[in-house]
Amino acid sequence: MSGNRNVIAGVSVSHVNASVDEIERVGGDSVRETVRDLLAREGVDEAFALRTCNRAEAYVVTDDAATGRRALDDFAPDVRAGAVVDLDHEEAIRHLMRVAAGLESLVVGEDQIIGQFRTALEEARSVGGVGPTLDEALTKALRVGERARSETAINEGVVSLGSAAVRLAERHLDLTEATALVVGAGEMGLLTARALDAAGVSRILVANRTVPHAEHVARDVTCSASAVGLDALPAAVSAVDLVVSATASPDYVIDDATLVDAAETLLIDIAQPRDIDPVTTTIEGVIVHDIDALEAVTDETHEKRQAAAERVEEMIDAEFAHLMERFKRNRADEAIGAMYESAERMKQSEVETALRKLESQGELTEEQRETVGALADTIVNQLLAAPTKSLREAAAEDDWSTIQTAMQLFDPDFGGEPPALPGSETPDSIPEDADVPQHVVDRLTDD
């Protein structure tokens, strides 16, 4: 749809093509700050951003695709080209639906993305980033995500990075004999603690900067659990077999000094940006895995959910087709509206002239005046019915020369650019089908 007004342009850096390091290098600003920055750029009318453990994405709405691409050019300046995916209007809308449905997640169908998506939408709204174009696309994406989980089995089995981390840990340890440390008391930390509890871990320590939050997570599980502050990490790590770290810290939480007294310890880092300093991989007896290492675990889940994923794909296809039909119909509506407004002005002028001439020959009754008006309305509707149909067909086929010609013919203020998306609604009285002389349609569609 390039070349049209009110189009979406997007950019995505995710686990699909990028490493953890590359995702980390995509700016550390909050969603709110990213949206503010995008809105300040030339030509940007709307903006949205999404940041999760395994993706960083941004979307803008501009008058044309080229302006959108320029606004997003420096979103991921330090990431290799192969890891950055540019999305045009239709690709962006479909991609947002896939993200919300969990089809683009590292753990296919995971539930956490819905909450992250909804929070990002609220953040973007709070700084004025979401207008009519993004509102419809993002709301539709959330609806698809909710339907995917309520109508299919896409979220059965491993449903979060936390549970994937636990599955990976089970390949190294007998969790029923192990003590685990969860670093971080946010949503990911809570999900990890629950997954460890369900796996039968012997004991859980929860470490967090705010100890009461860690205590809340510890109370949520049924196994023996206790909470400590981050200042107690070195002692806590030395007392456990497994560490799963999932904070939102911009800096490393665990480094070589933290592990100075650690014996044989398995550490799994599911934070973004990473919690565990890569230098720890050189410490004897310490095994460190990051998000990239979860691929093998999540691949198994993906295979099990393939049938559900295919059903969700069909759901997305149907919702996407419906949305595109509405968008394309709306693109023609501005031209149709201009056509009817121009005809209405001409009709009113000619009717008034005709009535004056008739009244000069004798006073007209109200019924006679209504008859003249009705005749004029009928002529206008019959003449414009076929061009209306042609314009809607042109929009469906992305035939912008036809729509531009219509705008030039009927809108004196039109500057030669395609109509806006979405445009004004067409009057309900416009006939859908009519047969008029071919030269009228020829004139309308003549380039």
From TrEMBL:
- Point out the coiled-coil segments of this chain: none
Point out the annotated site residues (description: Important for activity).
H95
- Gene3D superfamilies, sorted: Glutamyl-tRNA reductase, N-terminal domain, NAD(P)-binding Rossmann-like Domain
Task: Identify the residues that bind NADP(+).
Answer: G184, A185, G186, E187, M188, G189
Q: EC number(s)?
A: 1.2.1.70
Query: Which keywords describe this protein according to UniProt?
Result: NADP, Oxidoreductase, Porphyrin biosynthesis
The Glutamyl-tRNA reductase N-terminal domain sits at 11-152
Give GO terms: molecular function aspect only.
glutamyl-tRNA reductase activity; NADP binding
Summarize the subunit comment. Homodimer.
- Describe the function of this protein: Catalyzes the NADPH-dependent reduction of glutamyl-tRNA(Glu) to glutamate 1-semialdehyde (GSA).
Q: Could you give the domain comment from the record? A: Possesses an unusual extended V-shaped dimeric structure with each monomer consisting of three distinct domains arranged along a curved 'spinal' alpha-helix. The N-terminal catalytic domain specifically recognizes the glutamate moiety of the substrate. The second domain is the NADPH-binding domain, and the third C-terminal domain is responsible for dimerization.
Q: What is this protein called?
A: Glutamyl-tRNA reductase
Taxonomic placement? Archaea, Methanobacteriati, Methanobacteriota, Stenosarchaea group, Halobacteria
